[in-house]
Amino acid sequence: MIPERIIQTHELTKHYGDFHAVNQLNCRVRSERITGFLGRNGAGKSSTIKMLLGMISPTSGSGTVLGHSIANAKDSIEIRRKIAYVGEDKGLYGYMTVAQLIWFTKSFYPDWRPEVEKKLLAEYRLPPGRKVKALSKGMRTKLALLLALSRRPELLILDEPTEGLDPVSIEELLQTLVTAPANGTTVFFSSHQLSEVERIADDILIIDHGVSVLDMSLDQIRENYRRVTLGFNIPVPKLPTLDGMEKIHVNGRQVTILASWNSEAIAQLGRERNAVAVDIAPISLREIFLESVQDQNKQDQQTHWEQQNALV
What we know:
Elements: E1 5-16, E2 19-30, E3 34-38, H1 45-52, E4 60-65, E5 68-69, H2 73-82, E6 83-86, H3 98-106, H4 114-123, H5 137-149, E7 155-159, H6 167-179, E8 186-190, H7 194-200, E9 203-208, E10 211-217, H8 218-224, E11 226-231, E12 245-251, E13 254-259, H9 263-272, E14 277-282, H10 285-292, H11 296-309
Parallel strand pairs: 3-8, 3-9, 6-7, 7-8
Antiparallel strand pairs: 1-2, 1-4, 4-5, 9-10, 11-13, 11-14, 12-13
Helix pairs in contact: 4-5
């Protein structure tokens, strides 16, 4: 039986000397859904994935995948038996042909689905007789996905799956991923293509500097996140902090507030402080991502402004 939370971590941490790649990460990935795993380069995504796969050991903290501990060697083997992973390097045998690699791979999986293999082989236009090393980067990605999806994995982990694909191939891939949960496969994928994530993801996990900064369903994000803009014809007055205020930016006599909820109360606060213009607008995943991972320098500047202007 597949657990409701297919991935769980508790204060999962990975240090490389003085560098904290992952720092007390807490997350929960729901089963039979698509989770977009976002973060800047160096945010800790690859280290997190490697710990989940048992490729590297945590410095501290814990995690489970499909109910198995990622720190236990025997459990780690069981995890890898039940999941499929498509990484950036693909890890394919270049000296084999496409057909040979498919034949070799499916010999390890009694529940291999030949109908899926045949369907994807045709959809992806993979040449069975061509050696893997002669394939383009995009074609190697397609082949890796065919090998992953044909084996009926309970969990599919992908690292930048659309990298190197043309627009048509990206569309084919996204359509394939969308149907995976209906067939019992949970999808956990990292990507820098926010528009693609927003199209297909059910849940969003954003990390920055190894720390989770957002873990929420996309429906909740769309329902609750708003940008509240307050315009004043006087110097910006002191504003108390309300629940839901995530980030505050001040430009002259205009205050822009990123709200994770409670936007109406925040707007009312502006009216009570004599704002001459009040606007509440939806916010895209791209804007939320940029706000969540803004440079530390900008955060320091904002803190300094708040201290100088008593914006508390």
